[in-house]
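User: Can you predict the 3D structure for this chain?
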Amino acid sequence: MTGPLAGIRIIEVGVMLAGPYATMMLADLGAEVIKVEPPGGEISRQVSDSYFASLNRNKRSICLDLASADGQAKLGELVADSHALLVNMKPSVIRRLGLTYENLRQYNPEIVCVAMTGFGLDGGDDPAFDYVIQAATGVAAMTGDPDGPPTLPGYSSADNSTGLTAALGLLAMIVSGKGGQVEVSLRDVMLSQLNYRAAAYLNDGVEPRRHPFGAHSYYVPAQLFPTADGYLALFITHDGFWKSFAGEAGIAGFETMAERAARRDEVLVLVTAALATDTAASWESRLKPLGIPAAAVRSLPEALAATPEMLVTAGDFRLVGSPVQIAGHTPDYRPAPSFDEYRQNSPISAAGS
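Assistant: Here is the predicted structure, written as structure tokens:
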């Protein structure tokens, strides 16, 4: 293994997305990640080959029946020679399988144990899937058209965000040089990401409300706009941006952020009319040289075609590569592991099943 995390060994007892995404980010940076799978394989292998590949590249797989004494013994062998263990399961399952620091420190007092759950290890076993968490934390309620129903994004934002947060907590403990328990819950991560929205309510009593086209609550104009062809995302945060945009669009007045916010409706009428005179692609090409934050709304195929530098090959699959760019390090993208391939090249004997 090469990379800044070379020499770090992490055990993953992960399912589906959040846990496997966290450890894949670490594996891309050089950590050795051993994925513990139950007899029959981790459930995401049943979703699709590309789904599994997108979350498990650069890992190795070992089959352990953690409900058996033999599986627990082999887990202890792995823990004794590892830096961290990360698991995303229900709290009762995490405890029943002994995947906590309290249980595993007998094998290695310096092991870092990261538990990813819906509501915390003491928060109960209520189902905590991505969409459920977005509904429970207010994210869905503040998303969508004000006259329409709540809306969910087109990807697993809660799972992915929690994966990244868990990876941060894991690395923080490894850097500290101390073993211990780390907890990261989907609920807490999504509440944390509501930062200024939550602060506005907690301190000023301002409840979030939806604006058409996903408009920002503070900045004007900052939203999607229809154009002669397609939609444009425009994000004017300060007066310099507005001056440049207004000059290009032929709009006069509204020179301060406070005035634009106070006269939101008037500003949006003028901006909408101006942007309707040209296409989204053309507006993007006109505004970017002026340093104005703007982009035409692209489909996923268009976005991938526009960023070939982010596309990698791991075995038989084309995937999006690591977002972490470190000088002097180019990840070696290896395919997701075949089921239980680790035992063939390790001192761990045949797994209990």
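The chain has 14 helices and eleven strands. Residues 157-176 form the longest helix (20 residues).
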